[in-house]
Amino acid sequence: MPAFNRRLPESACIVERHRADLIGHITQVMPLADRLRSLGMLHVEAYEEIRAAKTSQEKMRELFKALDSGGDRVKSAFYCTLRDIHPYLLQDLEGQANRSRRKHFPSPPLAPEGMRGKHTDLQSQRD
């Protein structure tokens, strides 16, 4: 079974979450389309639409149309292809997402120095 089938929901969500960034950052679209075509994940018509687009952003938009029509399985294959061809871009995008989550959900502050490791719940205070 290909690797992209095992990570279906997570990888498809990552692709959706970073859609705008991927459209804006990927300039070499055809290697992605070629790989997806060779895996049987792109129909000839979709591949030709991608190839005919003038700019890399237009090519990526056409590619996303094909991904949307193919569903999570095709998005997962795209994720794996992206991981192989543009690994640093994917790492950067995931790093940005992780930093953003930490900003919105920061870790709770540490207890004061003298209180670390001590029970401070109500029961221990009553005893």
From TrEMBL:
Q: Where this protein primarily resides, as one coarse class? A: cytoplasm
What is the annotated localization of this protein? Cytoplasm, Cytosol
Q: Supply the SUPFAM superfamilies for this chain.
A: DEATH domain
- GO BP, one example? inflammatory response
Sequence segments annotated as region (Disordered): 96-127
Q: Which UniProt keywords apply?
A: Cytoplasm, Immunity, Inflammatory response, Innate immunity
Q: Which domain of life is it from?
A: Eukaryota
* This protein's GO CC annotations: cytosol
Domain CARD, residue spans? 15-97
Supply the CDD domains for this chain. CARD_ASC_NALP1
Basic and acidic residues: bias regions: 115-127
Q: What is the protein's name according to its record?
A: CARD domain-containing protein
